[in-house]
Amino acid sequence: MKLKIKVCGMKQASNIAAVAELQPDYLGFIFYHKSPRLISDVSAELIKYVPPTIKTTGVFVDEELEIVKQNIIKYNLKAVQLHGQESVAYCTALRSSGAEIIKAFGVNEDFNFAQLAAYLNSVDYFLFDTQTPAHGGSGKVFDWNLLQNYALDKPYFLSGGIDLTHTTTIKNINDARLYALDVNSKFELEPGLKDVEKLREFFKEMKK
Fold first, then answer.
1. pLDDT tens digits, residue range 68-111?
2. Which of 56, 133, 197, 205 has the greatest CB tally within 10 Å of its CB?
3. Is 8 a catalytic residue?
4. Prediction pTM value
């Protein structure tokens, strides 16, 4: 199965349209107010006009449950990515919204994969990112060998500093649970503005 590709941190109107033309499987919009990639109210309105073949994804960090639900409805989000300390109960409550639930975890040498078992019935996917205080977007790669400690069957997104230089390494990962790649800062001209040509090259390489 070809890996899905999610382009995250979209912010500017024309850039959203240009990246959407590349037909990523997921397009991510950040609703975390401390992020330099925070989507404006004006640009957020464009989410509804992204082609239906692309799963529009709202990224939230420890946001009030009702606010997330409101945004799912308001912008017709197909998926929600939770990047904070959201509990199992929180994830379970969100599943009734009908959106896919992606629970992100920052991974380092001290990460305890055993904690993921509690989320198995509450989320659709896990997302493994580099552990940073900023909840993602660091541009740093974590040691992918740590994923050998992941013993569950739940499919996952791989995130954290993925660049064009990683395409061969990614193709050599022999793990049926690896469902999607999440790219962001390494494909930017500035926070929230994606380099469309570099993304095009990445898409082409990953389809080979």
1. 999 999 999 999 999 999 999 999 999 999 999 999 999 999 99
2. 56
3. yes
4. 0.95
Cα dihedral sign for 189, 137, 59, 51?
Answer: positive
CA distance 28 to 50: 11
Q: What's CA 30's distance to the chain center, in Å? A: 10
Opening angle at CA 16, ends 57 and 91, nearest 5: 10
DSSP letters along 135-160, please? Answer: SS-------GGGGGG------EEEES
- The pLDDT value given to residue 91: 98
Q: How far apart are CA 10 and CA 65, in angstroms?
A: 23
129 is catalytic: yes
The active-site residue out of 91, 124, 129, 195 is 129
User: What residue ranges of the chain have pLDDT lower than 50?
Assistant: 135
